[in-house]
Amino acid sequence: MSLVFPVAVCRPDARPAPEAQLAWKLAELAAADDRPIDPAAAELAALRLIDNAAVAIAALNRPPVVAARGQAICHPRAGGARVIGLAPEQRADCGWAAMANATAVRELDFHDSYFALDSSHPADCIMPLLAVAQQTRLDGAALVRGILTSYEVQTALVRALPLQHHRIDHVAHLGPAIAAGLGSMLALPVPVIYEAVNLAAHLSLSTRQVRKGRISSWKAAAPGHIGKTAIESVDRAMRGETAPSPIYEGDYGILAVLLKGMGGEVTLPAPQDPCRAILDTLPKAHSAGYHGQAIIDLAFRLRDRLPDLSQVDRITLHTKRMTHMVMGSGSGDPDKWDPAASRETLDHSAPFQFARALVDGHWHHDHSYDPARIAAPEFVALWRKVETVEDPEWNQRFDTAAPLDKAHGARAVVRLLNGDVREDELAVADSHPRGAAPWDQQDYIGKFNTLTAPFVSQAQSSAFLEQAKTLATLSAKQLFAFGIVADLVPLQDSPAGLFERGMR
User: Fold this and answer.
1) The dihedral of CA 286, 291, 295, 297: what is its sign?
2) Which of 252, 280, 308 is where one domain is finished?
């Protein structure tokens, strides 16, 4: 059974009591410490932590990750949280460790996704929760409860309150989700979690420009920054401080100002029901924005039917509005066809992804973005023949379906110079639960082994996986020590910033 909570803008003279506000309902969900744990959800939480670690390790020497790690190193704390790749004794304050680790996770655009009225990457919650769990000496069961709570809150907000339509970035739903997950993990009382959720929601708002035009390295850092902000929001609430409220319903709040007065219905599990929303979230087999996952697989399927790509006249991808506007021609961004564009821009370019997959027949988190290969004239010529168009049928298949039933892909129409046409379509990525090869535990472990092999010895890798697979059973001592060292490759040092000034 689910609880449906309507949320709407209130007049100043009809402000709801705290107990009637959305932030309070989210706090009540988080504080239900007797809520049962679904075994399948707990298992997937462990696999998503493995997935996070895999993509984080593969990104350890990329500039945004190096910079975030450099900031964390400037905030050492004995008994704090581990920083991915560093020795276990080199610990940092949990807020800065959370930012460094979450930045590493986000950098390659290679972890999970969720889609309803809006989109999100719910696994962005895991590293902030882990950092706090280590610093506060919690066990694996508490961490799993926090992860499942955070997933539940974020997906509930994504189902009810669309941000992208109003050009607000989806990390606005991440902050309150992490605050709720922390409250659940720490077994905080409802009033404290309520204040933390209000403040985290207030401080997590940013514009969609972070994913528009020339996409900068901040895209990788944004979730970690939100995680750090949520940690600080919880700390402040635990000290008895208050936050702006009602943050959602207020006449100057999120609904009124940012969503132009739009309300919604937030659906949450009943107190006796487990948090299972993580089971509706989707893995990534390719290091690219999720809208490109099925498009890449579709290109692989068409490749054998196009032996001479020089004979392609033009390629049209008929797809849903979200793909067209965010990753395609509807964005109006010439950057999506620019061989000098940033990697962050290219992993949000459906035309680039289709063309690259069509040429190569495989996808690699580094090689597919090799600047020299991207700039090759024959590739650029093919790439610039690819366009997207918004297709009402694909909108319907995406907009009106339940999260796991949505059609994410496209229909590709390839017109050749001789007038022949080749076309095919793919609704979901192969790795999707409804796809040709739905992911299971072995796929996550295979991804981990492949991505970490250049950085981590086999002994380190095996030890990490053995503990991660049994995350819910780890003691507080085991979780405190849990982590992984990059023992095969020297980690790059960050250029000095403000925090190094005056350090001795």
Assistant:
1) positive
2) 280
**Alpha carbons 462 and 503: distance in angstroms, whole number:** 37
**Extended beta strands in 320-402, E state:** 386-390
User: What span, in angstroms and rounded, lies between the C-alpha atoms of 40 and 37?
Assistant: 9
Closest CA to 341 of 285, 287, 290, 383: 383
Q: Residue 139's CB: how many other CB atoms inside 10 A?
A: 18
Tokens of 144: 């799993």
Do 273 and 301 lie in a common domain? no
Helix (H) or strand (E) holding 120: strand 119-120
Closest-CA residue to 107 (of 281, 223, 226):
223
Q: Identify whether residues 242 and 341 lie together within a single domain.
A: no
Entry pTM: 0.95
DSSP structural state of residue 168: B
What does the DSSP 8-state code read for residue 361?
S
Residue 213 confidence (pLDDT): 66
Alpha-carbon distance 122 to 441, whole Å? 19
Q: Examine residue 447 and state whether it is found in any structural domain, yes or no.
A: no
- Predicted confidence (pLDDT) at residue 211 exceeds the cutoff of 70: no
The CATH number of residue 347's host domain is: 3.30.1330.120
Q: Where does residue 281 fall: left (phi above 0), alpha (psi -120 to 50 degrees), or beta otherwise?
A: beta
Q: Clarify whether residues 262 and 354 are in a common domain.
A: no
| Claim to verify: residue 297 and residue 229 sit in the same structural domain | no
Q: Pairing state of beta strands 312-319 and 386-390?
A: parallel
Residue 159 CB coordination number (10 Å): 21
Q: Can you state the percent helix, strand and coil of the chain, rounding each to 5?
A: 55, 10, 35
Q: What's the rounded Cα separation, in Å, for the pair 177 and 127?
A: 13
Q: Is 379 helix (H, G, I), strand (E, B) or coil?
A: helix
Range of the domain at 125: 25-81+92-280
The token pair at 206 is 């940013």
Quick one: DSSP state of residue 113?
B
Omega of the bond leading into 246 within 30 degrees of 0 (cis): yes
Among the candidates 391, 426, 461, a domain finishes at 426
Same domain, 321 and 358: yes
pLDDT digits (tens, 9 = 90+) for 151-181: 999 999 999 988 877 778 878 899 999 999 9
Give every CB contact of residue 326 below 8 A, 6+ residues apart in sequence. 164, 211, 289, 291, 348
pLDDT, tens only, 178-189: 999 999 999 999
Same-domain check for residues 257 and 310? no
Kindly report the number of other CB atoms within 10 A of residue 418's CB atom. 7
Same domain, 361 and 411: yes
